[in-house]
Structures are given as structure tokens and as C-alpha cells.
Protein 1
Amino acid sequence: MSNEEVFFKWSPEYSVNIKTIDDQHLELVNILNRLFVAVSKREGEKAIAGILDALVSYTQTHFALEERLMRQAKYKDLEPHMAEHKKLLAQLDDLARKHMLEDKPIYFEMLSFLKTWLKEHIQGVDTKYSAALQQSGFSVAAWEREATAEFALMSNSKKWWELWKTA
């Protein structure tokens, strides 16, 4: 993907200093950029279903793993964080419903919404749990070894990448 085709450029300011989580956030950004490329090439209609499926499935998998990390680390603000995750998934569901059932174009609304949400969520909410885990002395390195394998199993069971390849 060339720089002209990047809608949301990843930068170190989005890092939560947990490589596994950063890698997953970067993949979410890549999915968003794929939608942008499809829309800019006037292929949005053809690509939107696959991109929506990949986005929802990948996001659910990421959230489950992120919530497990916070639970294991006994993060005090787990419940409000989980509520943020549920809210995003509901908003994605609303967008998908608008597209599928009402046959309305959602590309620009989705691009704008997701870019804003990702930036605000990563920089506002995710950095808080990252800092709290580091301050508490939670062993992120040990968790990352376990999480990498677990994420692969979760991803394999959802087969999101098959949809992604066709989008």
C-alpha cells in the first residue's frame, strides 16, 4: 500500500508499549486503510462485505484477548473498558445493518467513525491500562508469549483472514 493510499498512518504515538496489542491495533488500521483504498478505487461496493466481516471478526478476537490481559492483571477499570468495546461492536453492527438491510452506502461514515474511534480509544483508554499494568509490575512479556499463541488459535477458529483476502 503506497503512502497515497493510507487514510490512517500508524505512528509510535499509538503504541501502548505491548507489542502483541500494538501489532493487533496496526492490523485494525490496515483493515481501515483497505476500506479507504477500495473506496478510492470505486470498489467499495464489491469490497465492503468482506472488509466488514474481517473488521468485526478481528475486532472481537482482539477485544477478547485484550480483556483477558486486563482480567489477568486485575486491572481496576476493566468493566468500563469492556463497555467501550461493547459500544464499538454495537456501532459496527449498526453500520453493517444500515448497509445490508437498508442498502445505504456507509463507506465515508465508517471511515470517519473508525479513524476517530481508533485514535481516541488507543490513545485515551488503552494507554491507561498499559500504564497501569507496567506500574503494577504485571509481567507483560510472559503474557505476550501466551497471548501470541492464543491469538493465533482464536484467529484460526474465526477464519477472518479468508474474508480479508477476498475483500
Protein 2
Amino acid sequence: MELNELSYKIIGCVYKVHTELGPGLLESTYEVCLEYELLKAGLAVERQKPLPVTYDNIRLEAGYRIDLLVNSQIILELKSVDEIAPIHKAQLMTYLKLTGLKLGLLINFNVLQMKTGIKRIIM
């Protein structure tokens, strides 16, 4: 599936979860509900996927985890915060760099209108 088509499908699932639950819940709640919706939509999802770091030609398990990886193509970094900080964007950009993937979605569920809570990061 092409990246734009896949991201469109993902965003539809994000809107569905946000419409059902609204803002104010824990990130972990949105994560399991979004995983369910993505699976229901026929997408392959890996939740809390370990992300090793290669440093000095050594692979290190540093405890990093991707919230959701969809179809092995798009990283979803979920938040439930008052506002997205620059460090949140930097975190997703680092995950993209470490994986070699091109597209990530930074999703903040703690917003009144979901359209203001989605940031698309392209590498």
C-alpha cells in the first residue's frame, strides 16, 4: 500500500478512536484502542516494538520502543499531553532515522479537535 493511502487509513482510525473516547485519557488507553481499530481495518500492527540503537558498530538494546508500527512502513508516536513539544518531534525523527523509515505520525489525543493533534513527519 502506498504511504499516503496508508496514512489516510491510519488517520481515519485515529479519528474514530478520538471520537469514541474524547480527550483526557492515558496514552496507553489510546494505544490499545488504536491498535484494535488498525487491526480491524486490516492493517499489520506491532505495538511497543523494541528499537535497538547501533553505536560504534554494536547493536544495543537501549529500552526504546515504537508505540505502533503499521505495515512495517509508518511509525505512530502517541501522546496525551497539553501540547506537543519540540522534543516530541525530535523523538519521532530519531526513530525514523534509526529505522530508516520515511514517514511517522505524531498523534496527540489530548485535544478537542483531532485535526490539531496530528503532525506528519517526513524524512
Protein 3
Amino acid sequence: MKKIVLPLILILFGTTILSGCTKDEILNHYNNVVQSAGSIELTGNSSLQGKKDNGIDDYTGTYQADYKAYTGTEYLFGGTSIKREAGKNIAVTCTLEATSGTAKVFWISGADEAVTLLETTGTYNDTITLPDGGNYIGIECEDFTGNIEMNIE
């Protein structure tokens, strides 16, 4: 019985709040909730190996890091927006330099397999068109020593 009460209260509360809203306003509210939930997936600043400066939203900004024998995955930019205010295109510029170990910069969208943008050492510069839903750019490292510089606009 307790499991049913809270969802019913939330439904009634949501219906009351949204009852005077237009369809577009309801979709905007929904998009904001979905985007907030998607931000949780990003690696928190205190857990990052480097320094991240956010841009106009969670999809953009800069990231610089010097790694020392790091193994792990950092989700740097992205979210779950249904309709991103700044549009569906992001320009990604990234330089990765490895001294030892392996690293790959990736883009993952929805339930699709991750796409490797850059691996070990090199430069990536391209525009990505984000489909609706979850999109994240990150780096996966295995005993990686090296550095990364990333700029997303």
C-alpha cells in the first residue's frame, strides 16, 4: 500500500501544477526534468583527474588533465536532453597524448555502442549531431599516463 501512495501523490501534484499549461510548456517541464536526471551521469568535478570548465550547458566546455597511471572512465560532457536549447550540433576539438598505457575518447548515444573519437595519441576535430536522448563524451583509461585537452562548443 505504501508503494502506491507516493506515486499517486506525485501524479496528483504534477497534474495540479501542469493543469494550466500548454502542450509546449508541459514538454519544456518534462525536458528540464529529463536533463536534470542526465546530469547525474557526469563525473563530478571532485572526482575528475583534471580541470573542467562548463560552457553554456552540460554539453559544452573545456577539460584539461594530466594523468598518472590512471585506470577508469570519466564522463565529461553530455546529458539526456530531449530538445537542447543550443541545438543538436556540437563542435569537438580534442588532443590526446600518451606516454604509457591506453586511453580513448568516446561518444555514446542512447543504447548504441560507444564510438571511439580518438585513441592513445592524436587530435580530433569535428562536429557531432546529437540525436534526442542521452549523449555523453568521455575518456576511458587503462594505466594511462599522458594528457588531454578538450574543447566542446
Protein 4
Amino acid sequence: MINPGTQNKDRLTIRVNHDRKINATKIAEELGTDLPTLVNMFIARLVQENGMPFRPMSNDAIVGLDEALADVKAGRVTTFDSADAFRDELRRLEKPTDD
């Protein structure tokens, strides 16, 4: 009898930076799995989503997130007591100013 888990499987060979592979292997092990399983999971989600299973971010987006985090850490934030108050503030910010 043929093992159903091995039917219709192809081998995929890729080249990857050695240090990146070592780090990824450690992370996979910490997650209780191995690197080939994670690669297969990625491919399965790629097919399921019919595209990237995550949103790639540009350096500009990362810089923006870093700036936002710095604002939060420095206390430069506005808090709201309700979703309505937050929506009101968004509407106020959307209105053109009379300059």
C-alpha cells in the first residue's frame, strides 16, 4: 500500500542565506515544528489566499510605525472615552480648515 502522505509530492530546492536558515530553524523549533513544515504552510496559504498570506511592508511603512510607537512611548497620544468621540474627532480632522 502506498503511503497517502507521499502521493503527488514534489521536491522543492531553494537557496537561502545560511544565517537566516539557522535562525528560521530555531524559531520553527520554538514553535514546535520544523522549517519544511513552515514552508509548506506558507505555500498552502499562498494558494488559499491566491496571493501573499501576509501584507508586505515598505520601509516607509516601517518608519511610520516606528514613529507612531515613539509617540505612544512619549505620551503623545489622544485617548477617547467612546467610539463616538473617536469618530467625531476623525470627522473634525477631515474637515478642511479655513487658512
